[in-house]
Write a structure and sequence with these properties.
By secondary structure, the protein is mainly α. It has two domains: 97 residues, 434 Repressor (Amino-terminal Domain) (Orthogonal Bundle), CATH 1.10.260.40; 32 residues. It is 78% helix and 0% strand. It contains nine helices and no strands. Helix 5 crosses helix 6. The longest helix is centred in the last third of the chain and has 64 residues. The N terminus is likely disordered.
């Protein structure tokens, strides 16, 4: 008689019975599974349209079942007709249409304009580095040229002052 009752019960009622038998509240189950409380209540009430998608219905039911010590895969198989099915083939086809794989994008021949666009950031950075190096070289040459002219000016002023000393000493000797 209990086997017949188990067959007629719904997946939501079975999960709820297992939860209460384990002594868990909805809040406890939320803490353990990290599934939002509203989704757990929707599973127990079998309002699967309130869950984010068909994939999540199956994943949440499996996680719920394993948390209350039921076999999740067996439960999904047993209540397969009550649960929404997931169309993985359609999803895979849509992904292939929307976004090509890396291999497919590499196989496409690149036009010369796209090659230039690919290397443009490298070219710009290289040009900036060359300009900075040229600026430093120019400043070094200019500083070196300025220091050598000031050195020659110092030596000429030394010569001038030394010639003044000579002329003043020759005046002193001539006046003596």
């Amino acid at each position: 008689m209990s086997e017949n009752n188990e067959e007629t019960t719904t997946i939501g009622a079975r999960l709820k019975a297992a939860r209460t038998a384990k002594g868990l509240t909805i809040d406890d189950l939320q803490q353990i599974t990290k599934i939002q409380k509203r989704y757990l209540i929707a599973i127990e009430d079998e309002q699967f349209d309130k869950l984010p998608g068909d994939f999540y219905v199956r994943a949440f039911v499996k996680q719920y079942a394993e948390t209350v010590d039921l076999d999740g895969n067996a439960l999904l198989e047993e209540y397969r007709d009550q649960l929404p099915s997931v169309h993985t083939e359609t999803i895979v086809e849509n992904v292939d249409e929307v976004q090509p794989t890396r291999v497919a994008s590499r196989e496409q021949p690149a036009s010369p304009a796209s090659r230039v666009r690919n290397y443009l950031p490298t070219i710009i950075v290289t040009a900036i580095v060359v300009l900075i190096l040229f600026f430093f070289w120019f400043m070094a040459v200019r500083t070196h040229a300025g220091s050598s002219s000031s050195t020659s000016a110092d030596s000429s002023s030394v010569q001038v002052s030394s010639s003044k000393k000579q002329s003043s000493s020759s005046k002193a000797s001539s006046s003596a």
